[in-house]
Amino acid sequence: MFTKSTSLFVIVIALALLAGAFGSCNKGGDETGNSPATQSPAADGSAAATPGAPAAAAGGSGESAAAPGQPADAGGAGLASDAGRDVFTLANCSMCHGSGLGGSTLAPALKDLKANWDAAKLKQYLADPPGYAEKDPRLAEQIKQYTSMKMPAWSTTGLDNSDRDILIDWLLEQ
Description:
- With 174 residues, this protein is an all-alpha fold.
- The protein has 7 helices and no strands.
- It has helices at 4-23, 78-90, 94-97, 119-127, 129-135, 137-142, 161-173.
- The radius of gyration is 20 Å and the shape is globular.
- The protein starts with a helix and ends with a helix.
- The model is unreliable at 18-77 (pLDDT under 50).
């Protein structure tokens, strides 16, 4: 039937195909490696379809429809909000901070961040969360509540800095 070398060859090919299939979706992007938050609009001016993003409203106006369970955007920043929410999901932030930004036993809530943060401070924090927290008395005290794991640096997400900036802008709107 099959020799050992033929069987080994078939197994190696199957593993390579599986690795290719899973490797192309590790960041939630398309086949070019673009994440949904950074994909550009289609050439015809309509919003490009991205997995997980709400579909454009009927009529092709480019406005986004509200996600299920979410209110329609009243301020015209729907596309930015959708992109920020997509990055939040792709970076796995909700695993600790909760999908509704309400926090959990692993990490604090991320609502009303404007009270203590601006974009520049969040960029510094995301580069090295534990290091930044040690220097900030408010965070040093807060971090004592969440001892089971440390917040990872942005560089571990596999997403680029433009995605980080989209996320920061979105978080500061919440």
